[in-house]
Amino acid sequence: QPTPEQWADLEFAWQVCAVVSSNAIVYAKDGRALGIGAGQQNRLDSARIAADRSAGRASGGVCASDAFFPFRDGLDAAAAAGIKAVIQPGGSMRDVEVIAAANDHGIAMVFTSERHFRH
To answer: Would you say residue 119 lies in a domain?
Structure first.
């Protein structure tokens, strides 16, 4: 489960995610968006861009994704950036693998069952 501080950052990142171009990944910490990756053909590239733009400042922070993670690689990239909690819609055929990745990395994950992805 996310900590109270992580919950606040997850809610903030989820709101930011709603207004970013599709395939959005938002890294946030302490009420600030620190890295945003969007407009890519896949979630992994968006996660890498968010990590690059955060320049290490998102370590210990949270990640919001506007749509489900179709593979664990996006979550692995978030973990490599130091992300500790994730909010995402869920609903992938591979949710079990994505949940396993979160567990492997000690990441708290919240499913919204609502997506912001515009296609």
So the answer is: no
User: What domain range is 95 assigned to?
Assistant: 4-111
50 touches 25 (CB < 8 A): yes
Instruction: Lay out the sheet containing 32-37: strands in order across.
Output: 32-37, 25-29, 62-65, 85-88, 108-111
In a domain, 75, yes or no: yes
In b/e form, how buried is each residue of 19-53, taking b as 16+ CB within 10 angstroms?
ebeebbbbbbbeeebbbbbbebeebbbbbbbbbee
The total number of structural domains that make up the chain? 1
Q: What is the pLDDT of residues 53-96, one digit of tens each?
A: 999 999 999 999 999 999 999 999 999 999 999 999 999 999 99
Mean pLDDT, the chain, as a whole number? 95
CATH number at residue 50: 3.40.140.20
Any idea which residue has 């890294």 for tokens? Answer: 27
Global pTM exceeds 0.85: yes
Asked if residue 117 belongs to a domain, the reply is: no
Q: CB–CB of 109/85 below 8 Å? A: yes
